[in-house]
S-adenosylmethionine-dependent nucleotide dehydratase RSAD2 (Acipenser oxyrinchus oxyrinchus), 351 residues
Amino acid sequence: MFSTEIKVLLQFCVGRLCCIFEGWLAKLCTWLGITTLVYYRRIVKSVENGAGETPTTPTPTPTSVNYHFTRQCNYTCGFCFHTAKTSFVLPIEEAKTGLRMLKDSGMEKINFSGGEPFLHQRGNFLGKLVQFCKQELRLPSVSIVSNGSLITEKWFQKYGEYLDILAVSCDSFQEETNALIGRRQGKKSHLDNLHRVRSWCSEYRVAFKVNSVINTFNVKEDMRDQIRELNPVRWKVFQCLVIDGENAGEDALRKAEQFVISDEEFQDFLDRHSEITCLVPESNQKMRDSYLILDEYMRFLDCREGRKDPSKSILDVGVENAIQFSGFDEKMFLKRGGKYVWSKADMRLEW
Ligand code: SF4
């Protein structure tokens, strides 16, 4: 009994000391580096929880985060694996709070994605977040993945200077194939949009990237000439991925089964394009484990089981707790070259 009281008293004293010195220590840790700050917070948390032990398994650092802040899109790609299951978008101040928390936990790169990120508030919501991440959070890399159809020159004039990389999705250089895939809105040309955005990227000094999903409709295509002409800093080539609840299964909004290709077919495509030096291949397994995906509620999505299992929101439980349920494989992230030259200032581009 007596020893229990002493233990409680000791925990209380340690807790109070932590509170008193927290501000001072946080400043010191920030000065020493963010990793130390993260470690320090974990120790404080373990003391507060009464564990009194230093955690033994390292918490992954959210170095590079993909924030899918909206699920809405103006395209209807048949294999889409982040579909419009909700129309929810966080109020901008809450989104900024979450982004700041991620920065404090070690985030260096943020990628905004969707749905189509330029759809919500005609790109203004996105523009404000891009500006906030570069100007206030001073992140080394701020990027966007978009289908390119809703971007305007005015947007580049207002926000281009805060953006490092813009990736535009393009799966085919034949309009009919894009139509079959659903990679366009009505009869508007996806390729015209792509070329327009490409020239704005040069004009406003934003690094240009292309993302392609290889599927049954484009697996035989030869894209070498068009990719050479576009000259992106990176060409990400994904193998079409099936995710239960998104593009497969009873409740899914898409049926991607008809788009799926084998590993061999994917490899054939890669071999055909092997001379393209900026090509970065992403097999299904790499995609499942090596991305940190945040959904519209700022919940990490764990894709390891072939579906998207959400954590709690980082806004409710903090980054360190939520990231434990992200399924993120930090080693795989590094192995797939997830960390690269991602700040436009370091790319030495000829604009
Ligand atoms: S462009 Fe296609 S793949 Fe991307 S979010 Fe829209 S429907 Fe999905």
Q: What stands out?
A: Residues 73, 75-77, 80, 82, 114-116, 147, 169 surround iron/sulfur cluster (CB under 6 Å).
